[in-house]
Design goal:
By secondary structure, the protein is mostly helical. The protein is built from 18 helices and no strands. Pfam families: Mannosyl_trans2 (PF04188).
Length: 465
């Protein structure tokens, strides 16, 4: 096997279920039910702090009288950024497929287009059946994009959980207990309700874990082999889709940079066509990751910065068109959300830094430890390829955490963390190590408490978001 379990009896532990998939399924259903109950029950706390959701759904002809559970769910979970995703999925205000407002480009157009497609399929099905096939028939047509986002979030989160389980089995040589613990930790991720709402976190996690799984499977074959090269390209494509969903997926490009450097180093020592191809394939894989971000930027450029010699179009060109790297994403993050190095470091944001501190600590500490010593994540070293992969994953996780600390709205780190595997492995290793078990248990208690409190706050339009 690629990597052997650090504990020889780990896979035979009585805490490892004879049917881990059933255990994960039941845990997933229980946790999601808990989160949705708290979210819908948040209405008992009082009306939402912000009226954006009610105004957004006000165009529905009978929204005030609709009382189906699906409608309630859609409107309790369409909060904060979810409004942007659902609005864009509706086609903005004129049915177009491109975002209507400049700031909408900060939110994945790819995800909104997919939600638009899902809602269209639901409407097509409803026209065949004669009514909306949802709940009791009273579900509003205007709720479909939101419900599509909720369904996609749940399905993607489930895929992420089961894929992480398979990935952990692959990297640990079949350590069933460690794989089960890591996947269960993914279930109760502090991203919480954001993995149930029309947000990008669940699809990003599913695609990220799937891409890494494909890459890890390819590393079972030697550097330069056709199967490994095919796996690198496939992983690049999947991780490119992840980047199209969330821009922090660009950090996954590090995996391909490391692969390219290793192939180039091997080529220098022993020149050969296979190694040269391997280096080139790794470079292409990295380009595929970057394309997930570059393509939407190019589309935006053609929309806002085109016009040729038209004088009126030239006058209306937004300022970002003249930048050396004309990125609408970086522009709207800068202008509309004031994202930038240390810009969030103001006294009034101290409470949000305190809220983010536990997750930041877990991500940075686990990333540093596993990068320095992969055994800290529960991995015994027998495969150089898998060891390097795990270390690259640890580095990319730490980079994102440091960027969140210095340049992002820091509270988003609790959401971003859901798409990174190393900290799940590290906490699982703590839970299996008597000397560190207290740390693991404290992390689990925090995750459960944070997820529950966050669900109520989110549904009432209160931070953190």
């Amino acid at each position: 096997m690629a990597l052997k379990a650090s504990s020889p009896n780990a896979s035979r532990s009585p805490s490892s279920s004879s049917s881990p998939l059933l255990t994960l399924t039941l845990a997933f259903i229980a946790w999601k039910s808990f989160i949705l109950l708290l979210s819908c029950g948040g209405a008992l706390v009082g009306p939402g702090y912000d009226t954006s959701t009610s105004l957004f759904f006000a165009r529905s002809s009978s929204s005030s009288s609709s009382s189906s559970s699906a409608t309630l769910l859609a409107r309790r979970l369409t909060r904060w950024d979810a409004i942007y995703f659902v609005h864009a999925a509706r086609g903005g205000i004129n049915g177009s497929r491109a975002p209507v407002y400049e700031q909408q480009w900060a939110f994945s157009p790819a995800l909104s287009l997919f939600l638009q497609w899902l809602a269209a399929q639901a409407r097509r099905t409803s026209s065949i059946l004669g009514r909306l096939p949802l709940n009791d028939g009273r579900t509003e047509d205007d709720d479909l994009e939101a419900l599509a986002g909720i369904a996609l979030a749940h399905a993607s989160h489930a895929v992420a959980v089961f894929t992480l389980h398979r990935l952990t089995l692959l990297l640990t040589g079949g350590d069933a207990r460690r794989a089960l613990l890591a996947a269960l930790l993914c279930v109760i991720s502090p991203a919480g309700v954001f993995l149930s709402a029309p947000y990008a976190e669940s699809p990003f996690a599913a695609l990220s874990f799937a891409g890494v799984w494909v890459l890890a499977a390819g590393y079972e074959d030697p550097l330069g082999s056709a199967r490994r090269s095919a796996a690198v390209l496939a992983a690049g494509a999947v991780l490119g889709l992840a980047t199209a969903v969330r821009s922090n997926g660009l950090a996954n490009g590090l995996l391909f940079a490391v692969e390219a450097l290793r192939a180039a180093g091997a080529f220098v020592k022993a020149p050969g066509v296979k190694l040269a191809v391997a280096a080139g394939v790794a470079g292409v894989g990295g380009v595929l990751v970057a394309m997930g971000s570059a393509i939407p930027q190019y589309v935006a450029y053609t929309i806002y910065c085109g016009g040729g010699g038209d004088e009126r179009a030239a006058v209306m060109r937004p300022p970002w068109c003249e930048r050396t790297v004309p990125s609408i994403y970086s522009y709207v993050q800068d202008v509309y959300w004031n994202v930038g190095f240390l810009r969030y470091w103001t006294p009034n944001q101290i409470p949000l830094f305190l809220l983010a501190a536990p997750v930041l600590t877990l991500l940075i500490a686990s990333g540093y430890e596993v990068l320095r010593r992969p055994a800290a994540g529960g991995f015994a070293l027998s495969s150089l390829d898998h060891r390097v992969l795990v270390q690259a994953l640890a580095a990319s996780q730490a980079i994102v955490a440091l960027l969140a600390l210095t340049s992002y709205h820091v509270q988003v780190i609790s959401r971003l963390a859901s798409g990174y595997a190393v900290w799940y492995w590290w906490i699982a290793a703590c839970l299996m190590d008597k000397s560190r078990r207290g740390v693991g248990r404290a992390a689990v208690i925090f995750m459960v408490m944070y997820g529950g409190i966050q669900a109520v706050l989110f549904s009432t339009f209160l931070p953190p978001a």
